[in-house]
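Re: thymidine-5'-diphosphate structure - here you go.
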Amino acid sequence: MKYKTVLFDLDGTLTRSEAGITRSALYAAERMGYTGLTERDFLPFIGPPLHDSFKRMLGMDDDQAQRATELYRERFSRVGWAENEVYTGIPALLRSLKKNGVRVAISTAKPQVFAERIAARFGMAPYLDAIIGPPEGERHASKADIVRRALAQLGGPAVMVGDRCYDVEGGAANGIDTIGVAYGYGTREELERSGATAIADTVDALGDLLLGDSPRSRGVFLSMEGMDGCGKTTQREALVRHLEQQGWAVQVTREPGGDEIAEKIRALILDPANTQMADVTEAYLYAASRAQNVRTRIRPALERGMAVVCDRFVDSSAAYQGGGRRLGMERVLALNAAAVDGEVPDVTVYLRMTPEAALARRLNASEPDRLEREQADFYQRTFEAYEALYAGEAGTRVAAVDAAQPIEDVTRDMLAAVDARLCALAAAVKR
Ligand code: TYD
């Protein structure tokens, strides 16, 4: 590894932050009496110190620029900071850097408190050795100052990564190499002109420059479990959106099913004509589908550093076949061992709902008929198996969420639990 320290600019390098920045700058300008402007006019505000931008772009004097910066920060601190998303591939890159023992920091012209809040909210904080920006109250630090502070703290050999000429110049002023990223808010020409040591057009290319052929970190494996009717599909969509906002490339898959072969096995299992299927045959078919899904979908995606979201995994077999069909959880887990081949989810979202509540949801609150009543015992056993399986798992891989709440509350609790778990995992990435 050429560099032992990597300093990242934040906006336009780690995060796509235009909405929060341009809306806050427009807000400040309008309150200062400037009219006829749109959000787009403020795109050049991304990167350089705000104070300078207000002066240069709108012709303000120092006092006006100071007032505009205060107005900007007032809106930004309320809502703007969260109008943000991490570029796809960044978590995988940060994990790989950490795995290889590289010190990683954010060095930004944004006030340090905001950079800290953004890093925490978007899941980057646990990978970072330092977050360095101007302390609150400091009027306008230059990028060179910020880089100097970061280097004093972290040492070298270091490289500064950023999307604007300010980042390149700030790195060069401290005598270190610089990588310009052309996927942000500067152009390739701007970065070349300012003398960047190298230029990366994509996050992948940046990873190649920083990591060379050093080993990459694996991605994260999330599974979702719960009774039929627990709202899994809706919550899965919210989870995938959330992970994407944190910069994960997400592979979504479901069980039974996954690739073409696994989907054929799914059709065989769920075919209503197969009334004579023995319970143990069914258990093996779920395991067969899983064996295929692990090898063609789940593991390859994890090896590429992606987040895999699997709608049901081996715990469904433990609950439905082990409990519901009375094959026994131990036995079902044993016959799944070769299928799973050591792939254990890092996080399992358990959408906890009693069979009665789940049934009421499925039937849209109408009274169950005779057949459904017979099924009630099956679902009761399935539920009890889930509960037994996850008893004592709280605080480990299992994020249990009360799924009987209103949808938004379930989502909020689920995302908080998932974030806490991902944070713990990130902190534990082995050097
Ligand atoms: P799923 O597609 O998740 O259905 P839904 O979206 O309605 O929840 O699962 C289909 C059914 O398969 C569901 O009733 C649970 C069952 N199942 C098992 O019995 N064992 C298993 O191992 C898996 C993965 C699913």
